[in-house]
Amino acid sequence: MNYTVKDILNLQVAPALGCTEPVAIALGAAAAASLLDKQKIDLIEVSVDPNIYKNGLAVSIPGTGGLSGLDMAAAIGACAGDPALKLEVLESVDESAVPRAKQLIKEGKVKVHLLADHRGLYIKTRVSAAGDWAEALICDLHDNIVSISFNGQPVEDSPLLSTTIDDQSASPVSELETWLKTLSLGQLLKLLDDLDDEDLAFLQDGVDTNMALANHGLKYGPGLGIGLALERLARQKLVTRDMILDARILASAASDARMAGVKLPAMSSAGSGNHGLTAILPIWAVRTWVDCTERTALKAIGLSHLITAYVKAHTGRLTAVCGCSVAAGAGAAAGVAYLLGGNQAQIAGSIKNLTMDLAGVICDGAKAGCALKLATAAGTAVQSALFALQGVNVQPTDGIVGLSPEQTMKNVGTLSTEGMIETDRTILKIMLEKQFSEAE
Hints:
Layout: H1 5-12, E1 13-16, H2 20-33, E2 41-48, H3 50-56, H4 70-80, H5 98-106, E3 110-114, E4 122-129, E5 132-139, E6 145-150, E7 153-154, H6 172-180, H7 185-191, H8 197-220, H9 226-235, H10 243-259, E8 266-269, H11 273-287, H12 294-315, H13 323-326, H14 328-339, H15 344-358, H16 370-389, H17 405-419, H18 421-439
Parallel strand pairs: 2-3
Antiparallel strand pairs: 1-8, 2-4, 4-5, 5-6, 6-7
């Protein structure tokens, strides 16, 4: 099956409120709790894979006043989440639901189990209330609810189901990613010719959504306040303002706000809000420095989403490698090169330059510090594109860089899925030991 650029955008780009890992936990809990009397919930049990666990430990949850934790995500989702909203499940949550969620946790009625050896995204949630119980299972994708049951009986007609666990066919996103892997950079670029006015309006909506987060970050300095700090340094003339710095400011300010739990959605890319910030905002920042049409800028963002999806098709959704760096960063680099008038060879060079620079950046969970990584990814994306336009092109004799951008991106996938398994375990081990020692 062949897909259009509209299909890719529809399946890979969507608004998400809050970090998508705790949001996915909240979604599973909300889906199960929707079959029960929420006022009588007496037990919530959640079993998750290591990467969901890692990314849900420390990031703030929207609507909770800055609280964090997998147990809080599950409790707040069960008590007040709206599962019909999918990745915006927390839109219905405000701080009035927090006391009930905190009470459930305090009474030991929320239990989170780490499935240490499980590979792939997996969230199984069981909620009990007044003698009844319901269960929801999310697999592969953050909002892919594959089964819901009530007292052990499948609820097969639930509108919340995406696919079913018994369905032998791949999910629409899995099928798309299988197809994406067969494409060349030239074919990805050719897809941009099919962008219509509806697609461009959708891409502009993504810009507006992510700029709202960036503007909030610059105004209030939430989280670590990286974006606001960079902005102040520029005003004080301690650093020079250029397109690289502007890209870093916008991306990090938006991440500051998102990681602090500000109740504003991000337009995600390939299942991640921070990927969406990285894929979109550096290009939008560079736009103000060059003479280009809005249509060209939006097409550049479209290319960024395509490259991001291509890399993630090889790496998987959650890995030990920072996807904001190697996937969305590669997308942004390609998009910036396109925006600056680069040809296919220069766009390819920008991807390879970015990969050589950032391939070793680890993912150690979602947290306020992600703003630092987004600042790095955004700035390096612009720099990689500028280098490529100046004829700087990492050679295939260097490290994991391949003869082509396609092979380079496949190599990143191999590194992530085969080479970093033990690294991922070690990262989580360090995080857990730190968590327990700090609690003592």
